[in-house]
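Justification of resources, computational component.

The compute hours requested in this renewal are based largely on the per-chain cost of generating structure records like the one below. Each record pairs the submitted sequence with a full structure-token output. That output is archived, and it is also reused by downstream analysis tasks.
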Amino acid sequence: MNKVKAKYIKISSLFLIAMIMIVSYVSSPFSTKVSAHDIPSSVTVHMYVKPEGNTLKLLLRVPLESMSELVYPTWGPGYLDFEKADSVLLDAAHVYLTEELQVYENGVLIEDKMITAYRATSPQDTSIQNYDTALENIQKPPLTNDERLYYGQAVLDVLYEFPISSDQSKFSIHPTLNKLASITNTVLRFLPAGTGERVFNYIGDPGVVELDPSLLHALYEFMELGFFHILEGIDHILFLLCLVIPLRSFRGLVPVITSFTVAHSITLISTAFGLAPQALWFPPLIETLIALSIVYMAFENIVGAKLEKRWMVAFGFGLIHGFGFSFLLSDSMQFAGTHLFTSLLSFNLGVEFGQLFILICVLPLLNLLFKYLVSEKAGSILLSALVAHSGWHWMVERNSNFNEYIIVWPEFNADFYAELMRWGMLAIIVGIASWLMFELAKYIEKRAK
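The structure output for this chain reads:
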């Protein structure tokens, strides 16, 4: 027994020592183990796309820190050795960029592409702000080591050329550069032949970007965007649910849904034309009010709603929800090309189709629920209470976010009065729409009698 015990102690001791050695090795700052690629948290990529004759030029600037898996030659305390970095910089462009840039001419992928110039430079270099100066800068000789630039601070300019049949073709691009960082912000400037510059600014992978979209493409894309936006917006769906729980007949729904649609269309379109406030606190305020609208409608269902006046409530909250729809649209209008108004109407039409789809799905389910499982009054109270619970949590959370912003009272200057005039125009539009909805509600009520 003593021998077994001694053997057990010996094995345990060896195991403990081994574990200590492993932990010490892993945690040691002098460990030579290979670490995974630590991508930066955020980088900004600048890109120009310019078709000229039978060649499309694509010039981009990428921070070198986002391509850090390669070993760059350095000297001194870590300065980039420009005199020896030529081949490594070319490898970096091929490894991280070449396959991530897919350019299409008239919907057909351009297979051939080549790097015609590349150059590492300082991030303070401002030549990238203009295509001509950026093109001139990339064709200069490499910097010398007198620059004393740490490799992690340098940026890499790369010029690609793609063979095309004509610079009048329709071009699109799918840049999958989101792998460069946790957040990749891309500023893409398209310079079509014979016309001005078109700027796109997006985060991550935008999918295939139509640089000069056709009318039908813009119509389809924005209608799809509006349709799926309302399907993915749980808060908008719950608000619609609260609207229709006590109103499940066609006659009762027409003025309410029409009122909500007219109202959110007014603020959606008005925002696209610059009538909404541009303050940073405005979006979180609207998100808070959207949650409040859900809570209000749910509690109104619980205590007993005045159904004949519900169209008024739907109109008021519809104005708020329209601002909410506009926040997504404002980020997407850059992809509309020259079809801004068509894209705006298409998005709004997509939202309406989404609402109609929700109603088609929800109304039969509510009727079956109240017919076979629970009474209408108890079911309405139960469903509204569940919706109110979710809306309340959203309201508290969004209000906390809103309170982080500091609201500064405007100065009474020319900008203030210009803003006041825009809001006055919006108020007139809302007033006219309210009067029309009032007349429509009276007409429907008269017909019902």
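The longest strand covers residues 42-52. The chain has two domains: 42-212, 217-448.
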